[in-house]
Design a protein that fits this description.
Rossmann fold; globular; 2 domains; alpha/beta; Alpha-Beta Plaits; 10 helices; about 300 residues
């Protein structure tokens, strides 16, 4: 089984906090490479005075944190998690990824992505799995490609579960930062009359359209746009959902009211717990009432309504 090695490089003063974040992401543990006290540790621990010249040349000002991620733990989701947590903690970092590769690495992770029930009604079905039992659930067929949004990450599950609870009476749905399109396709399967999805990444737009087609949804019922947040969006909606990072939600929230029908819900996910106070202050200042709050694995999802 191939593993992805992720190496985080941070200034020594941030090493402890960065290591704590890394431990949350790596089930198998981490390896910390820190030479800041090389001479003292050589004497106190190894009981030697002569140190190899190669070690003496190591950077003493930065710490490297190594994580090893198996395919079943979805390395792409881990990278997304690390970037968000470290940025929220105001820790400057460099990140590199490498793979103990064989020629089939890009598809190996698929062996670990199985049909997965989410909420009370949905079953997320990877299209490459032929044998599965829906057990009465509504099946959402998905080919994520390299786009974020398989249902395996806490933020996506939280958002799907929350959307499901509020679909009664929802005719129109907007998915901002749609990634694979999983939220908007789920909304259509759960009863929305129409859905619109938007992403700045052309590849995500392509995959969202494909996933719509896999589930029987095309224009005009399902429209996917390439744009930055809502710059290409028109009309108003009964539910607007955004499973994106906290900084993008802060920007989006400033102008989202113009896209909300009276009484509409604004559902946001992808927010780490370190940013909760900032997000709540912004909601309050912009006139959004927080109706519900959900949390899983340090990630938050809010249901709000404009006052």
């Amino acid at each position: 089984m191939d593993f992805t090695e992720i190496i985080l490089t941070v200034q020594n003063r941030h090493a402890d906090t960065a290591a704590d974040v890394a431990c949350m992401a790596a089930r198998g543990g981490i390896y910390v490479e820190d030479y800041s006290h090389l001479e003292q540790e050589a004497r106190d621990i190894a009981h030697i005075d002569l140190i190899d010249e190669e070690l003496l040349q190591k950077d003493r000002t930065h710490t490297k944190i190594h994580l090893y991620i198996s395919p079943e733990d979805n390395p792409a989701e881990t990278v997304s998690y690390l970037r968000e947590r470290l940025t929220a903690a105001s820790i400057p970092y460099e990140m590199t990824e490498s793979v103990c590769r064989n020629e089939d690495w890009e598809n190996n992770w698929k062996a670990y992505f199985k049909p997965m029930p989410v909420g009370e009604k949905l079953l997320i079905h990877p299209v490459w799995v032929d044998d599965y039992d829906a057990d009465g659930r509504t099946v959402l067929h998905i080919e994520p490609g390299v786009s974020f949004g398989t249902g395996t990450h806490e933020t996506t599950r939280l958002c799907l579960q929350t959307i499901e609870k509020h679909m009664e009476g929802c005719r129109t749905f907007l998915d901002v930062g749609c990634g694979s399109g999983i939220l908007s396709v789920a909304a259509l399967l759960l009863g929305a009359e129409s859905a619109e999805a938007v992403d700045i990444d052309p590849l995500a737009v392509k995959m969202a359209k494909l996933n719509g087609e896999l589930n029987g949804f095309t224009e005009p019922r399902y429209t996917v746009l390439e744009g930055n947040l809502t710059d290409k969006v028109s009309g108003t909606f009964d539910i607007v959902a955004a499973n994106i990072v906290a900084d993008a939600i802060l920007l989006l929230s400033k102008d989202i009211k113009q896209f909300l029908n009276p009484g509409a819900l604004y559902i946001t996910s992808g927010i780490i717990d370190l940013r909760e106070a900032e997000i709540l202050e912004t909601f309050d200042r912009l006139g959004f009432e927080v109706l519900e709050r959900y949390e899983e694995g340090g990630w938050l999802c809010f249901v709000t309504r404009a006052n």
